[in-house]
Predict the 3D structure of the following.
Amino acid sequence: MTVAVKESRRRKRFRFDKDKAIGLALVTPSILAVMVFVYGFIAWTLRVSLSAWKGLLPDYTFVGLDNFRQLASDPRFHIDVRNTVIFTVVFVGGCLIVGLGTALLLDQGIRAEGFFRSLYLFPMAISFIVTGVVWRWLMNPAQGDRISGLNLLFDKLGLDFLVNTWHATPGWGIAFVAIPAIWQMSGYTMALYLAGLRGVPEALREAARVDGATELQVYRKVVLPLIRPVTLSALIILGHISLKVFDLIVAMAGKQVQLDVPAIYMWTTTFDGFFFGRGAAIGIVLLVSVAVLVVPYLAYTLRQESGQ
Amino acid sequence: MTQTRARAWIYIPLMFLALFYLVPMFVMLDTGFKSFDEVSLRTMWDLPKSLAFDNFVAAWEALSPNVMNSFKIVVPAAILSASLGSINGFVLAKWKFKGANVVFPLLLFGMFIPYQSILIPLVEFMQSVGLSGSIPGLILTHIIYGIPITTLIFRNYFATVPEDLIEAAKIDGAGIWSTYLRVLLPLSIPAFVVVLIWQFTAAWNDFLFAVVLTDNTNWPVTVALNNMAGSQIIAWNVQMAGSFLAALPTLLVYIFLGRYFIRGMMSGALKE
C-alpha cells in the first residue's frame, strides 16, 4: 500500500468522524429535550403519583400506591373508565365503518373523487373545540317548545323518531359524544383505507376477475384481506386518540361528571382541586393504557421498516 | 351498461355523506350571516333573509385579541419546529450513529403520549424558569413536543433522497453541514411545507397546553372560544360566528394546501 493511499484513507476517516461529530452535535439538543421533557417528566409525574402532594405547595412525602388504590375505589374514576370504554367502542367502530364504507365507494372510479375526498376530510383541519361548540348546539337536548338543533331538523323533516336527548341521555350520553368525534375523524380513517386500497395491485383484481370472480368476490376474497393491516393501524391510532379524548368533551359539556373521562378528571383534580398526587396517578394510568396499545405497534412498524 | 348504472347509485350515499360532513359548517355560516333580529333557535335551519354581519362583528370584537395571540404563538412555533425537525431528520436519515435505533423509537413514542402524564412537571418547570402564563412558554412547549413528528416527517423524506447525491457532494469536498445546506435543504421544500402546515394546524387547534400554561391575557382562540361557549352571557349565534372565525385559518390552509396537510396526517400514523 502506498503512502498516498494510506494518507487519503486516514483523511477520509478523519473527515467522516468530524462529520459524525457535527451530526451528533446537531441532534443532541433535540434528543436531550425529548429525554428531559418526555421521559424525565414522566419519571417526575411518577414520583408525584407516589406522593402525598395535596394543595399548592409540593409535598413529596412517599405514600406508595395510595393514590392508585384510592382511584381504584373512586366512584368518579369508575364513571370515567365506563365512559372511556363506551366512547372507544362507538367512536372506533363508527370511524372504521364510515371510513371503510366511504373509501370503498370512492374506489369505484367515480367522477369528482377528489372533491368528495376533500369534503370528507376537512373536519380534520378544525379543532375539537370548534367541533364541540358547534355540535353542542346541534345536539341540544331540549324538546317541545324549546326544540332546536338536530331535533328541530328531524321534527321538520318528519323524522320524529330520531328526536332524542343526545349527550344528556342518562347513563349513555357519552355514546352520543362519539358522533362529533366520528364526524371529525372518519375522513382520516377513509384516507388510511383509501391509501391501502390504492396499494392493492390492479393485476391481482384482474386475475381474480379472469378466474370468474364477481366484483363482490374480488373485494371479499382479494382486496379486503389485503387491507387488514390498515384496519390494525386505524384501530391503534383511533384507540389511542379515544383514550386521550379531552377538548371535545370539555367544549360540549364542560366539566359534567356524567360525561367525565380520565383526561378531564386529571385536569380538574390537579388544577382546580390541587390534588396533585391523584392527578399524577391518573396521568400515569393514561400513559400506561396508551403505551399498551402503541408500543407493540411501534415495535412492529419499525421492525418491518428495517426488514425492508 | 350495468357498469354505468352501478356507478350512478354510488352518488346517492356519497351525497348523504357530504351532507353529514357539511351540516356543522352550514349552521355556522347560516347563523353567522343572519341579523340579530332574525336570529332565533326556532328558525336556525332557515336561510338568512338578507346578508348581515352582526354576528361576525360581535364575535370578532370578543375574540380578536385571542386570534392575534394564536398567531403570535403558532407562527414562531411552526417555523422553529420545522427548522429543528429538518436538521434532526437529516442527521437521523443519513448519518447512522451508534444507538440511533434506540433513540428513534424513544423519540417516536413521544408523539403518542397523553400529555396529562407530563403536565404537572411542565407547569412546575415553566414556573421555575419564569415562563408561566406567557406566550414564549407555550411556544417552547409546542416546539419541544413537536420534535418527534417533525423529525419523523423529515427523516422519511430524506430517506428517499438518493445516497449518490450526498456522495457527490462529499467528493466535491462538502462536509455534513454544507451538504445539508446546499444539497438537502433546497430539496426538502415540500417536506418543509408539510411540517409547517402540520405544526401550524396542531398548535392552532391545541387546547390542553394553552389552558394550563397561559393566563387569560395570553389565551389563544381555542381557550377563549371554549370560555365563550360556557358563558351564559354570549348568545349561541355569536358562538357560531366565533367558531367559524376560530376555524377559518386552518380551513384556509386546508383548502389551499390540502395535499400537504394530508401527507402530514398520514405520517402521524407512521404511514407514507
The longest helix of chain B spans residues 54-94.
